[in-house]
Amino acid sequence: MLLEALSAAILGLALAWAAARRLPHRLPARSLVLATGVAGALFGAFVTHSALGAASLLAVLLGSAAVCSASLSLLLRPAGRLRGRSATA
């Protein structure tokens, strides 16, 4: 289980670093992105390990990557200005 947690943390850090490097204009501060990536990956590994038991490391890392990418996607800001008008105008 220690190997799963360490692998998930490294995977989350790598995914968060790639996202912060590729989309710096749409993400908040790099430290927040990196912390969210690691936390999301560890939480995904925990949930996957709890659901599947002592399954393969690959299954745990897939679940970890899925939750990590979902948590990183919550940090994204819109690319441009919103085009819609407010209802009060």
TrEMBL record:
Domain of life from the UniProt record: Bacteria
Keywords annotated in UniProt: Membrane, Transmembrane, Transmembrane helix
Name of this protein: Integral membrane protein
Record field: transmembrane: 28-47, 54-76
